[in-house]
Amino acid sequence: MCTAATYQTKDFYMGRTLDYEFSYGEKIAIMPRNYPLQYRHGLKNIEHYAMIGMAHVVEDYPLYYDAVNEKGLGMAGLNFVGNACYQEVKEGAVNVAQYEFIPWILSQCASLNEAKKLIQTMNLVNTPYNEQLPVASLHWIIADQSGSITVESVKEGLNIYENPVGVLANNPSFDKQLFNLNNYMSLSPKQPQNLFSKELDLQTYSRGMGALGLPGDLSSMSRFVRVAFTKMNGQSRDNERDSVNQFFHILGSVEQQRGCCEVADGKYEITIYTSCWNSQKGIYYYTTYNRRQITAVNMHKVNLDAQQLTTYPMLDDEEFYEQN
Ligand SMILES: C[C@H](CCC(=O)NCCS(=O)(=O)O)[C@H]1CC[C@H]2[C@@H]3[C@H](O)C[C@@H]4C[C@H](O)CC[C@]4(C)[C@H]3C[C@H](O)[C@]12C
């Protein structure tokens, strides 16, 4: 399972949890403007926007899971197993392999509006990166300060949904996730009133009773509701430290602890990492299952006019702060 969210304070933040039972080996990868970005089906854009994100890097090529570009447009791919369906390669079409979708958009689009237009021109195809790697079954959230969309390639074609919540989880399709929120409209951070019956003297005997009914399980439908509620009601000051901290708390509401979600005998899905980027500043923050300390990589600290990819290992060891 995975969950992605956006968050607006003074700056615009976005990120995701990456939940899985094994890791492909992740790195934080900065693709500078002159990295020779070539596409599988013949498209090329040599000079492009720079981007930073989490990727599995093969042969110096970043297979991005999530990333943000220097213009503040961000994107994350989340599992959409059983629903994702890509096209066959078509002669004469703008064929974009599923693993190229993130760099294809982020290298060319400075805003969500530009992304919406570019997506209309694309034929998203099922080409795998190589024979060792499967075709990933994903759907995507794309967002900047102006809003969010969800992109789902299904057997009927490409669906592009406005995403007014700025949240994405896994199955089912986004329209159903959004509709499901109707079931929770009475939830509130305030204490409830007794609307149950005038004849009964019902009392609020604990704080937090306004959110009674907020689903606490790990299913994606429930995580969608939980993150939406936490994000929509969460409060923080608007400076960097408080915004980033608050963002990690929002996604912390759907973290997966080892042991609670068994996917095969003795195999458990966990939150391998959580990311949060500041779209304006190009800073990519992350925590991992073992490293709760927030770690930051700033894309503007490398030469963004270079040609080579810069990668940083995803640090995964906890450093306890010894106070005495
Ligand atoms: C498994 C990851 C998604 C995690 C997730 O959504 N879990 C939910 C599980 S469930 O639905 O609820 O069952 C996805 C997100 C991004 C994916 C990776 C990226 O798409 C980049 C490449 C794409 C290649 O085709 C396959 C390897 C890969 C390196 C992908 C491996 C895997 O599919 C990743 C890592």
From TrEMBL:
It comes from the Bacteria. It catalyses: cholate + taurine = taurocholate + H2O; taurodeoxycholate + H2O = deoxycholate + taurine. Keywords: Hydrolase, Lipid metabolism. Transmembrane segments: none annotated. It is an enzyme of class 3 (hydrolase). One of its GO terms (biological process) is lipid metabolic process. Pfam families: CBAH. Its EC number is 3.5.1.24. Pathway: Lipid metabolism; bile acid biosynthesis. GO terms for molecular function: choloylglycine hydrolase activity. Residues 2-312 form the Choloylglycine hydrolase/NAAA C-terminal domain. InterPro entries: CBAH (IPR047711), CBAH/NAAA_C (IPR029132), Ntn_hydrolases_N (IPR029055), Peptidase_C59 (IPR052193). Belongs to the peptidase C59 family. This is choloylglycine hydrolase.
